[in-house]
Amino acid sequence: MNLHTTMTSNTALSETQIAQFTRDGFLVFRGMADQATCEHMLAVATRQLQEAAQPLEFEAELGYAGAPSSLEAEGGRTVRRLRDAYHRDVCFHDWAENPRIVDKVRQLVNEPVCLTLAHHNCVMTKHPQYGTATGWHRDIRYWSFTQPDLICVWLALGEETSDNGGLRFIPGSHRLQIPRDQLDDLLFLRPEHPANQALFEQGQALELHQGDVVFFHSLLFHAAGVNTSSMVKKSVAFAYHGCSNQPLPNTRSSASADIRLSN
Ligand SMILES: O=C(O)CCC(=O)C(=O)O
Asked: Gene3D superfamilies from the entry (predicted)?
């Protein structure tokens, strides 16, 4: 596996790291969140899952292949996202505003940083039985901004491997122009399209351990499999952008709060 690793980070990004992000579309920081922080977030997320604390997104609502056919079907209440993590608990709020994240994003976007609450802003879960795989996509499909440049910051609260539905990335794919016919109506790369096969072959599994954080560009193609383990996988995901990159008026992106986090 050729996915580079960045050391534990309390410091500013180096020129090399910024160049890596520009080239590959992602950066991994090992052990950026300590064990106590992750265990606390896990406990909060586990309790809120048990309580079915709203707002939730269900697998049945997403309707990906293999999802329960309705909320009433067997497994129909399988949660995909604990939405609005920012307002769920102070631990998620504080993580979203953590200066170690904001300072790095500030360097990558080279201007003041805003946090969008329009999408991501969640604890992502992947359940063993009814959690579904996610096809190759770019996260920009979730947003409408003047520029397609947001950065997702994904924290692994536990192990993430290809066995429990860990992320897969196509390094450098944020720089590719993809003809529209290679994408389906929901902007996933069509699995059967001949021109996509070479892209799929470049996909690399990302192994994350508890406390590891990956920053990735909203144009980076990524995917994730199903969870064949017996434990629910939980990750925290927030998305940031340069404050000059504004949500387009009258879109879901402009309907949610956008929080300025730096100068
Ligand atoms: O965990 C997954 O299945 C993929 C998550 C993801 O990439 C997404 O929801 O956009």
From this structure: q2cbj1_9rhob like domain
Ligand 1 pocket member 119 (CB < 6 A): no
Peptide bond into 55 cis (omega under 30): yes
Tens digits of residue pLDDT in 199-219:
999 999 999 999 999 999 999
Residue 218 burial class via C-beta count within 10 angstroms: exposed 0-12, middle 13-18, buried 19 and up: buried
What separation in Å is there between the alpha carbon of 134 and the centre of ligand 1?
Answer: 6
Phi and psi angles of residue 52, each rounded to the nearest 5 degrees, phi first: 50, 50
- How would you label 138-171 residue by residue, b for 16+ Cβ within 10 Å and e otherwise? bbbebbbbeebbbbbbbbbbbbbbeebbbbbbbb
Report the distance separating Cα 80 and Cα 126, nearest Å: 6
Q: Is the CB of 126 under 6 A from ligand 1?
A: yes
Domains with residue ranges and CATH for the chain? 15-260 (2.60.120.620)
11 confidence band (pLDDT: 50, 70, 90):
confident
Q: Cα–Cα distances in Å, from 134 out to 39, 69, 92?
A: 26, 16, 24
Residues 103-134: b if buried by 16+ CB within 10 A, e if exposed: bbbbbbbeeebbbbbbbbbbbbbbbbebbbeb
Helix (H) or strand (E) holding 235: strand 233-242
| pLDDT tens, position by position, 158-178 | 999 999 999 999 999 999 999
124 lines ligand 1 (CB under 6 A): yes
Q: Crossing angle, helix 15-24 and helix 99-109, to 10 degrees?
A: 70
